[in-house]
Amino acid sequence: MSETRIVDARGSFCPGPLMELIAAMKTATVGDELEVLSTDRGSAEDIPEWIKKVGHTLVSSSEEGGVYHLRVRKAK
Amino acid sequence: MKRILIVGGGTGGTILANNLARRLRPEIDGARVSVTMLSASARHMYQPGLLYVAFGKMAPSELYADQKTLLDPVIHFHVDPVESFDLDHNEVKTKGGSVYDYDYLAICTGSRPELVSVPGLMENAHHVYTEDAAVKTAEALRTFEGGRIAIVTGVPHKCPMVPLELTFMMYDYFKDRDLLDKVSFMYTYPIGRIHSLENVAKWAAPEFDRMGVRYETLFNAREVDGVKKCVHSEEGSKVEFDLLIAVPPHKGMEVIEQNKLGTAGWIPTNRATLAMEGRNNVFVLGDTTNLPISKAGSTAHYEAEVLGENLARLVTQGGAMRFYEGKVFCFIEAGKDRATYASFDYKNPPQPRPPSRAIHWFKLAYNRLYWNSVRGLL
Ligand SMILES: Cc1cc2nc3c(=O)[nH]c(=O)nc-3n(C[C@H](O)[C@H](O)[C@H](O)COP(=O)(O)OP(=O)(O)OC[C@H]3O[C@@H](n4cnc5c(N)ncnc54)[C@H](O)[C@@H]3O)c2cc1C
Q1: Residues B246, B280 within the same domain
Q2: B332 lines ligand 1 (CB under 6 A)
Q3: What is the pLDDT of residues B159-179, one digit of tens each?
Q4: Structural domain ending residue among the three candidates B300, B327, B354
């Protein structure tokens, strides 16, 4: 497993962060972990929904100083 | 002499140029200021009209005006697209080989649909983003005798309302043809609700429910299989179709990317001053900004008014004073004879009202008034 890749989508608004995650997932391999950084609350809600729909794993999610950190493992 | 150069003669560029001509009349007459526009076309297209072309409500010829006739005569207008930008030396070079230098530059080159980003989309989908495509969509709707219609949207795209409007207008069109019992609608959208603006999604979902339009959210098209007639999503789901209507994802113009002014052709822009990030004499407006707001003519219009005022102050008094507050106004056609609208800015979300005939007629009137609007007469 490679090290966690950061998808820095801070400052971008819905649907920007989700689109950046989708693009990053395309080039990742199964088992890779990606961490999305987002300052957009709407995206912080959308991204877990998307992960659930696709069947990836949400490893953790937290918020710190207005920045959402969503860690995802590519499952398929 | 202070030279203002505008690159792009669409909605934003034209409004800006005429606004400057009006504000700076004495300076231009006194040869202290010049305003030059470079564009890629001698014709100006009223792009929102493409939606009406697809439903046979406007003829393609009604979409165009001669750009020169829309501009104040004091503006120097050249049809010669820019090929390279040298922002460090305040000059641009055109396809025709000319070099134009400037004191202030405004970039408003618009955006374009990128169908190739989804394999199979170009070959199998109808859309309304070029004249040719809108004419073909009209023919496809006219000859459709029933079946599954899928609406697939990519982001970002020009005019946020088009996916909804296409759906509402198709519904009424097939209702008029007495075909509704033979037609099913499947509307898909990339994020977790049926429109990017939350209140618009809240308004539209019950309308769809009432009409029997089914929808799937978090649907990002991965590829279109033209043989099996289905669209596969990044999320692993599949939508089948007999008629596929796409709102393709867009990019800014190639020239922007080639000159490394912004990823995917979107130029990093200050949301209040509209200055290109890192530059104080380069401004950006309309579709080609990277701002998280609608890529709409009304966005370009409001931005152009702010920028016109600021540039006029910059060349005469030395400082910009107005800020763009994110204002956008979009009509939403809710069928063949009803419409509503969304009016919003950075701080205030839209509150769409129940659709009415009056708003629809107002939109139809605007389709004709557009030319006077870009001339600065409205
Ligand atoms: C089907 C459809 C429906 C729409 N409906 C609506 C609506 O209801 N309401 C709304 O507000 N908006 C609507 N829009 C969106 C609206 O048309 C655009 O957002 C608007 O035109 C953007 O203005 P702009 O000035 O940024 O770009 P444009 O108006 O696209 O102008 C770009 C200009 O740049 C020029 N150019 C390109 N490359 C170069 C170059 N290299 N050098 C020099 N010049 C160049 C082009 O020739 C053109 O003149 C719709 C669009 C479509 C396609």
Answers
A1: no
A2: no
A3: 999 999 999 999 999 999 999
A4: B327
For residue B69, what is the domain's CATH number? 3.50.50.60
Residue B378 tokens read as 């409205």
What is the complex's ipTM, to 2 decimals?
0.80
Cβ-Cβ contacts under 8 Å, B292 against chain A: 12-14, 16
Nearest by CB: A54 against B196, B236, B292: B236
- Confidence band of B94 (pLDDT split at 50, 70, 90): very high
Residue B180, in any domain of the structure: yes
3-state class (DSSP) for residue B170: helix
Contact B192 A46 (CB under 8 A): yes
Rounded average pLDDT over B83-104? 98
Between the CA of residue B254 and those of A20, B114, B257, B262, B323, what are the distances in Å? 20, 11, 5, 10, 29
List the catalytic residue out of A5, A14, A22, A33: A14
Judge whether residue B271 has pLDDT over 60. yes
Q: Are residues B225 and B181 in the same domain?
A: yes
Q: A67-73 and A33-38 as β-strands: parallel, antiparallel, unpaired?
A: antiparallel
User: Is A26 one of the annotated active-site residues of the chain?
Assistant: no
Q: Which residues of B touch A22 (CB under 8 A)?
A: 220, 234
Q: Does B192 touch chain A (CB under 8 A)?
A: yes
Interface of B with A in 286-305 (CB under 8 A): 292
Residues B85 and B163 in one domain: no
Kindly state whether B184 is in contact with chain A, defined as any CB-CB distance less than 8 angstroms. Answer: no
Q: Which residues of B touch A16 (CB under 8 A)?
A: 292
DSSP per-residue letters across B175-238: HHTT-GGGEEEEEEESSSSSSSSHHHHHHHHHHHHHHT-EEEES--EEEEETTTTEEEETTS-E
What residue numbers bound the domain in which B263 lies? 2-110+253-327
Whether B257 is in a domain gets the answer: yes
Nearest to B260 by CA among B274, B278, B239: B278
Residue B342 banded pLDDT, cuts 50, 70, 90: very high
User: Are both B147 and B267 inside the same structural domain?
Assistant: no
Q: Read off the pLDDT of residues B180-211 as tens digits, 9 standing for 90 and up.
A: 999 999 999 999 999 988 899 999 999 999 99
Confidence of residue A2 (pLDDT cuts 50, 70, 90): low
Residue of A nearest to B154 (CA): A19
Of B203, B224, B250, which residue is a domain's last? B250
Atom of ligand 1 nearest to the CA of B255: 41
Using CB atoms within 10 A of its CB, is residue B192 exposed (0-12), middle (13-18) or buried (19+)?
Answer: buried
Number of structural domains chain B divides into: 2
Domain A5-73: CATH class, spelled out: alpha beta
Please report whether residue B15 resides in a domain: yes
Q: Is A66 on the interface with B (CB under 8 A)?
A: no
Residue A63 has pLDDT above 60, yes or no: yes
CB A76 within 8 A of CB A55: yes
Q: Which of A13, A25, A26 sits opposite B292 (nearest CB)?
A: A13
